[in-house]
Specification:
single chain, 144 residues, mainly alpha, two-stranded parallel sheet, 6 helices, membrane
Length: 144
């Protein structure tokens, strides 16, 4: 079990992680830079480069970056236990599809993203003590 204030810190940490890691995916220009950086990392690690992205691939990356950035900002501005629960479910889905991609030959750099998804997903799925009472007290303390 984890206390509410500790749990909410985990929710905020996962939101910051999402913001830092995915904000660059939100535009074609920033994603091109990230794609190049990941290819440099692939070269340094001695693994295959990422494939070139066609416009439809770029669109999918940009949509991912856009929605995850908005979701991260919501969790930072209004951190709530329920958002952590939804985020845990989303991370479970992301981790599932990342594992599927890895099993089908995707670039091994995805393992790093997979591990972060699993870690934050597990942390946000933990049982929380006194959720309602503590959140109400935290909101009162912050508003007054």
């Amino acid at each position: 079990m984890i206390g509410t204030s500790s749990y909410l810190r985990v929710v905020r940490a996962s939101a910051w992680y999402d913001l830092v890691v995915t904000a660059g995916f939100a535009t074609p220009w920033t994603f091109s830079a990230i794609h190049s950086g990941l290819n440099i990392l692939s070269e340094l690690l001695g693994i295959a480069a990422l494939p070139a992205f066609a416009p439809a691939h770029m669109l999918m990356a940009n949509l991912l970056g856009s929605i995850v950035t908005v979701w991260a900002i919501l969790r930072l501005r209004n951190t709530r236990t329920e958002y952590g629960r939804y985020d845990a479910a989303g991370r479970g889905l992301f981790a599932t599809w990342q594992l599927f991609a890895l099993a089908h030959g995707a670039n091994p750099i995805i393992w790093g993203f997979f591990l972060a998804e699993v870690a934050f997903g597990i942390a946000q799925a933990l049982p929380v003590t006194d959720t309602y009472r503590e959140e109400k007290m935290l909101k009162l303390a912050c508003s007054g």
